[in-house]
Amino acid sequence: MQWLNFIIFNAVAPLPDLHRVSDAGAGENLMQLTPTRDAELIACGRANTPLNGVFSPSPVAGSESVSPAILVHGLLKALQHQGLKVRLHCYQLGLEQQPDFSGSMLDDIVCHYCLPGEEARLVRQQLLPELVRQYHAGEEHVIAECGVGGTTFATLWLKHWLANEITLAGSTKDPEKLVMKAKTIKQLMDQFSFFPRDVNTFIQHQQASDPVQRALCALLMTQSHDKTVLALRLAGGMMFIAPLLAMGVDVIQHQLHIATTRWVLEGTNARKVLSNLPSSIEVVPSVTDFNQSSYRALHLYEQGYVVEGCGLGGSLVFAEQLGLSQQQIIECLDAAVKPWLE
User: Fold this and answer.
1) What is the mean pLDDT of residues 299-323?
2) pTM
3) From the UniProt record, which GO molecular function terms apply (predicted)?
4) Which residue ranges make up each domain of the chain?
5) Are 317 and 285 in contact (CB under 8 A)?
């Protein structure tokens, strides 16, 4: 039986007023719960962790879209129907609340936790040896992220390394939040403008990087004990691409394949960023048309209200490359969201 290991970095960016710049969270003082609840949605099809003591299992977001986590849940179920077994590897990076996986529909779940700043140790001790094990066992993997507020730090890095006019589509189109986000990024730019273009300087400072960036850098810059060169399938957008540009190809120890949604690649800034990637790094976008869905909540993805997250693009590309038709994919996505929208 073929295994798919779905690996996800869960984290929240170190911003004091994150709820004022992102729609990807549950609100003030609750943003830390979003990655945990998304992991539950991926495994169980519902969120089990309460919000302010209230059981709120729905994946419906404030923008009337749905969390990409519930779509990943539908895709993983479809892959199971194709004969794959799915194991979730949940990396809680600085998140104190552990997920409640009651009612999981996956075949296996593994959870790991570290304090902020300890991401490199966790990657070296747990993730890298596990990826080597998977490689020798002939198992598949996808490495995803649920990093709330991560586009803010991806933008900081891209502005610092490439050009100050770089901006990225994030989780909100709210005018007030966009103004606040721009102000936050400017403050970060001013604070770290004197830093050299050296990735180690940024990842050693917890206010100049977020946990997902630190974990990814540790993974890509560390050679395995047995010198195995891994072919890593990254499922993410600019939160993964920004660290690649900051690191530079010379320090990356593994082969890379990036799968993401096609919405990540739309726009002048995205093309400008991607043009700086080395040709050895392949970026493959999904092709599934969400306008074929029965639900407006999925149509909103096509309108840019949700761009990427929770490994959605990588899961779509994996399913597409496995041979699932667009109709099959849309049917599994619709089935995942139907209980919450009707």
Assistant:
1) 94
2) 0.94
3) nicotinate-nucleotide-dimethylbenzimidazole phosphoribosyltransferase activity
4) 3-341
5) yes
